Amino acid sequence: MADHQALSAVFFLLLVPHVAWMAMAMPSSTLLHDKCELYAAGDRPSYDYCIRTLRVDSASAAADERGLAAMAIRIARSTAVATAAKIARLQRGETVPARRDGLAACAAEYAAAVRRLGRAARDVSRSRGAAGARELREAQTLLAEVTGAPELCDVAFEVAGGQGSPLDAADRELDVVVGLASDILPTRPMATTKP
């Protein structure tokens, strides 16, 4: 009987931290699901994309609204960096002048997108208290500017010779992840907590 009580006590002690951790993680996990439901607006593939994209960062389960937006922006920045690297590889091998011009225009757009997304992530991370509204507006503006980068890249290829962009899939991916970041971006700064 004493062994059974001791075993029960050990089980209880092991269970308490797990239950406490679950209670702390649940609201943020719910926030992740709530934000993805709003983003998807009833479209299951969009919801799955949102969850899959944000869960790439293991901190997403415990993140607040601002943290989720910053994660989405960092993921968008990584997408833009990868596309910029692809553009650089294509530029090295391109011999047709019109396509080189198109790639040069795309390189400029994606370099600007990388800078803007970096600034947007910093703005969201700093958006606390009364001054935070300005940072959130700036982040929204930067995300809106980045949303146009893929289309400008496509237009550059059309102008350069009427050929389609070799970056269509990458362009669509950037627009989708920037759209996700825009949709989950908080509209108001978080209140600052006093120590």
From TrEMBL:
Instruction: Check the record and name the SMART domains matching this protein.
Output: PMEI
Signal peptide positions are: 1-25
Q: Which UniProt keywords apply?
A: Disulfide bond, Signal
Q: Does the keyword Signal apply?
A: yes
Q: Where is the Pectinesterase inhibitor domain?
A: 27-184
The record's section on InterPro entries has:
Invertase/methylesterase_inhib, Pectinesterase_inhib_dom
Q: Please give the superkingdom of this protein's source.
A: Eukaryota
State any single GO MF term.
enzyme inhibitor activity
Spell out the Pfam families in the cross-references: PMEI
Q: Which family does it belong to?
A: Belongs to the PMEI family.
Q: What is this protein called?
A: Pectinesterase inhibitor domain-containing protein
